[in-house]
Amino acid sequence: MFQNLQERLESAFKSLKGQGKITEINVASTIKEIRRALVDADVSYKIAKEFTDKVKDKAMGQGVLTAVSPSQMMTKIMNDELAELMGGTTAEFELPTGFTTILIAGLQGSGKTTFTHKLANFVKTKKSKNPLMVACDVYRPAAIDQLKALGEKIGVEVYAEIENKNPVDIAKKGIEYAKSKGYNCVIIDTAGRLAIDEQMMNEIAEVKKAIQPNETLFVVDAMTGQDAVNTAKAFNDRLDFSGVVLTKLDGDTRGGAAISIRYTVQKPIKFVSLGEKVDTLDLFHPERMASRILGMGDIVSFVEKAQEQFDAKKAAELSKKIAKNQFDFNDFLSQLNQIKKMGNIKDLLGMIPGAGKALKDVDVDEGAFKRIESMIQSMSPAERANPDILNGKRKERIAKGSGNTIQELNNFLKQFEQMKKMMKTMQSGGMKR
Description:
Layout: H1 3-14, H2 24-40, H3 45-60, H4 70-85, E1 100-106, H5 112-125, E2 131-136, H6 143-154, E3 158-159, H7 167-181, E4 185-190, H8 198-211, E5 215-221, H9 226-239, E6 243-247, H10 256-265, E7 269-273, E8 281-283, H11 286-293, H12 299-308, H13 312-323, H14 329-341, H15 345-350, H16 355-358, H17 367-377, H18 381-385, H19 392-402, H20 406-432
Parallel strand pairs: 1-4, 1-5, 2-3, 2-4, 5-6, 6-7
Antiparallel strand pairs: 7-8
Helix pairs in contact: 1-2, 2-3, 3-4, 4-11, 5-6, 7-8, 9-10, 17-19, 19-20
């Protein structure tokens, strides 16, 4: 995500390295490169020019700080201004305590249906709502089946009428059904439409007018760049939506939509979606996204994801085992499963400052986890609990049973021992402090 933009901005800041202070001359070339980088990332020239003029004014107004280099100063200014451009503060997703209706709109192929089920799971697990999804895409044959299949995975019912081709009528009946069955949140998935399709645009406007939703969210594919921004404006002019959802941010996106859509439509980005899995939906934090764009990581989001899988009691037990040098393969497998629940590994590593740059050309093989799991699962309970008893004969059996070579098994065992030593050293170091 934003890899090319990160590299271009980093290159722009290099001209300030070694400079004693910020001057009109050395800032000019840096600002020019920043503007080019933003335009190449599919930010409109008007927005890029206005943004870089503001950055330049801020930079020239800074006093000389002996403890901060010009490149560090420029990075800080860029970080603050990028965050401001994308909304400044996080737009919280607060729902009323009573009955809630959410309307989902967007282009064809933007990921509306996938987002609808992610949002249903979000309001169910994090907002304590009892949601019902309503299928109002009457044009795409497989849309209802897709939503029902996704609903089954998260235990959320879908209201649909196969023969009815009137989305306004379906939406109204879906709300009536929800109220009669005790649901307190209705999420309405609509058909994808083109901004230039007047009939379809009138239709979605009629749905909104008929149901008066608490939230109208516009779903946009971040990979479509400036086109997405222009489309959002066209939809907002008709729908006056309450927020934007950026999907496919895990793809090869240039970043233009994420950076400039808030400025263009003056509506907050409320969610970002980074994959197909149901839990890959996050609230949008402008300041964290700015840090990631500048290659500074997003350690806050990383910690939050870790805390979602964190079990304080198990952590305390694990800490005692590490102190006694009793960390075994069962513990390792448990930790591995917790990491996998946090999401895509390369995306997670990109949240750690410096890791994204270090891994830009590295293919993080998620299959490596499966190989390790197969090795541990091929061990007997006694072998998992007592790594020291693994002799040649046992290793041969484990390697064969897991479909790995003896060398691959030995490499893993060596890494496991090194990790145990490092964990014990780190913990004893923490105790001394």
